[in-house]
Every structure is written in C-alpha cells, then in structure tokens.
Amino acid sequence: MGRHLMRKQPPPLYQRIRQILESARAGAARSVNTAQVMAYWLIGREIVEEEQRGRRRADYGARLLIELSSRLQADFGKGFSVNNLEHFRDFYLTYPRLVSPENSHALRVKLAVGSVMGLPAISHAVRGKSGQSSSWTPGLLHPNLSWTHYRVLLRVDKPEARSFYEVEAIKNNWSARELERQKNSLLYERLALSKDKKGLMQLATKGHKVQQPADIFKDPVVMEFLGLPESPRLVETDLEQALINNLQAFLLELGKGFAFVARQERLTLDGDHFYIDLVFYHTVLKCFVLIDLKVGKLTHADLGQIQFYVNYYDRERRTEGDNPTLGLILCPDKNDAVVKYTLGEQQERNIFTSRYQLHLPTVEELENELRRELRYLASPAGDATIKESLIVAPKAAPGRRKKKGEAE
C-alpha cells in the first residue's frame, strides 16, 4: 500500500524536496568554505599584529612563524607550515577590509561557536548589518569564494586586475580551476586592450559588461586547452574538430552568453554550397554569431567571405527580435591595415577579427600585442594611460608551481 502511494506522488513534490536538499548541501559547503577563509584571515591578522609589536624586525618575524608553525602542526597537522602561515599573513595584508571592523570580533566568536553549534551561525556576521549581498564590492568577503579561489587571487599583483577576477569569478560561478585558467590566460589584460581609463575602472569594479558587439570578442583568443601544436601543417578541419571536442572550455574562453547552434552549416545558393564553420547565438546581445576558422594569415578574401555569411544570415535566418548578425574570423595572424581598409567603418560594426593562440600568452607576447593595438586607438593621451595601466609584472606570468606543503 505504501509503495503504491509513493508511486502515485506527483513529480513536483520530489523536485521540491530535491531542491531543498541540494540547497542545504550547497549552503553547508559555503559555510565550511567561509569558515576556513575567515579562520585563515584571522590567523593572518594575529600574525601581523604580533609582528608589529616586534617593530617588524625580520629576525623576530621569522622566529615567530617557526615557533608558531611547530606548535600548530603538532596540534592541527601539516596545513600550518611556515609557508602557509606566510600565505595567511599575505592574505590579511592583501585583503585588510575583507570584514568590516565592527564584525571582525563577532566573527572570531562565531567561528568558535560554529565549531560547536554548527557553521551556518557564521553567515549573519559575514553579511554584516544590512544582510544584503548586493552591497558586496571587491575586497570584501563573499561566500562563493573559497580559500582556493583566494590563493589564486593572491597571485595577481595588480589590485585592479585582482578586483576584476573577484567579480568575474562570482558572476560566472567559476571554480578555482577555471579562475586559475582565466588568470593564466591574462583575461583582464586582453579585455583591457580596447578600454579607455573609464572603461578600465568599470572593468575592475563591475567586471566585464556586454553592452555592444565589440564587448564580446577578445583579441587574442587563447585556446591552449586544445592541446594542439603550433604547426604549419595544421588544417582547419582539425582545429574545428578540436574546438567541438572541447566545446565547454571554448565557451568559457568566448565568455558568458554564447550558446552553440551548429557546425559546418550549409548554405545553398543556386546550386552552390557554402559552409559556415561554427554558429552561435548570443543570449545577451540577441543575435547570431558566425565564426570562420583560418589556419593561415588573414586575407581580404576571408573578410569578404564572412561578410557574405553575415549578409545571408541577416536576410534568411534572422527573425523578429534578433539583432543584426555578427561575424568573427579566428586566425593566427592578421594585418590590421588590411582589415581596416577592406571592411571600412560601417562593416567594422558587425565583422570582427581575432588572433588565436594555442598556448598561454607570455608577458612579452602581451606587450607586443599592446604595441600593435595601441597604434589604432584614437587618443594619444589615452594610449599612455592604458599602456601604463596594463603593464604586467613578470611575477604574474603563468607557470608557477605550488610549493611543498602549500594549503589549498
């Protein structure tokens, strides 16, 4: 009888219960992450304040960490090496405003209570008096950023770039691995190439906002996740197949709003067949995006071909509510002057070209890209401002390995 009644239960009931359980699990995980982050921040603060009492003497600080590490490892395990204690100290120094002063003492108490009564007790103190998540700004604690996220952020030297990655990690729900990948691909610097001073400030405080077609394309596009060697024998079909096989990673690189529609879509005109490599729909701009892949240097004929595809889509596939179709050519090399004089001002509004790289960019490569792009910016004064803002410290280059005993 009971089994019969269970089978009769409507599906929505199961879905509601499932949602409750999943929300509870996610909330518990966030509470654990927040407790860990807060504990490490408070430890860092204690170390800094103790060192300041010793007037920041180098020998005092080194001896303090060695003695503290020895005691903590005996009681709590290997996660409290001298190296990790230095990370906690750097965490506090980098994020001194992580928690408002009026809440820092409460959090110390809440952490102690949480260990006995349950970690969700922390959430009220974390949110502050207003309790509104909308009041969050970069540099303040956010429950969706784990200690592993913050470890990645600590390796970003420029404050404005670090703020940008905080905002984007939260907006896009990036895992720590995805955040690491975007940092290593120099996403901030690539997006900042075409920004003026005001645009750079918005990028650092509000993240990447899509307001016009030019906002959705990066140059260069980094596709190291394909695992393809840079070779003159690379053919377009191999590149296309690799992108399809790694579609999730490719969508992450393209950015928020891209939805995959088709590959090798056939267009037939008077018996002649043409094929568009990749078709996407952008859910924010409400338009189709056609991508053409090239393995050689961009030519004016390639630009004519993508313009043909865009014109066809606008006339035959675009429906009511869709904005004009956009075209993007991905190529390993291009001549910006050829692009400018082939397309002209009108066509540059819906046809774009981006270089792609099959490896993570280095500082030198980015600087070369900067010099190339700055030649095409309108304001000489703006050029100097942007160039100064985008200097990348050698320390920020990808490839750093974790040290032994480093906390996750």
What ranges have pLDDT less than 50 throughout 5 or more consecutive residues? 1-6, 112-133, 377-387, 391-408
What is the string of helix and strand elements? HHHHHHHHHHHEHHEEEHEHEHH
Mean pLDDT: 78
Outline type: elongated
Output the strand order for the largest sheet: 1-6-5-4-3-2
Radius of gyration: 26 Å
| Largest sheet composition | 6 strands, mixed
DSSP summary, beta strand count: 6
* Beta-strand percent range: 5-15%
Count the DSSP helices: 17
- Compute the number of structural domains: 3
Topology:
Elements (H helix, E strand, L loop, with lengths): L1 H7 L2 H43 L4 H19 L5 H13 L6 H17 L5 H5 L19 H7 L5 H13 L4 H9 L2 H6 L4 H10 L14 E2 L13 H10 L1 H8 L3 E12 L2 E11 L4 E7 L6 H17 L9 E6 L4 H12 L3 E7 L5 H12 L5 H10 L19
Parallel strand pairs: 1-6, 4-5, 5-6
Antiparallel strand pairs: 2-3, 3-4
Helix pairs in contact: 2-4, 2-5, 7-9, 8-11, 12-13, 14-15
Key descriptive features of the protein:
3 domains, Trna Endonuclease, Chain: A, domain 1, 53% helix, disordered C terminus, six-stranded mixed beta sheet, 17 helices, alpha/beta, 11% strand
Explain this structure to me?
The chain is an alpha/beta fold and 408 residues long. It folds into three domains: 2-153, no CATH class; 155-214 and 361-396, no CATH class; 221-360, Trna Endonuclease, Chain: A, domain 1, CATH 3.40.1350.10. The protein has helices at 2-8, 11-53, 58-76, 82-94, 101-117, 123-127, 147-153, 159-171, 176-184, 187-192, 197-206, 236-245, 247-254, 300-316, 336-347, 363-374, 380-389, and strands at residues 221-222, 258-269, 272-282, 287-293, 326-331, 351-357. It has a six-stranded mixed beta sheet with strand order 1-6-5-4-3-2, sandwiched between helices. Strand 3 and strand 4 (287-293) form a beta hairpin. Helix 8 (159-171) packs across helix 11 (197-206), helix 12 (236-245) crosses helix 13 and helix 14 (300-316) packs parallel to helix 15 (336-347). The protein starts with a helix and ends in a 19-residue tail after the last helix. 29% of the residues are buried.
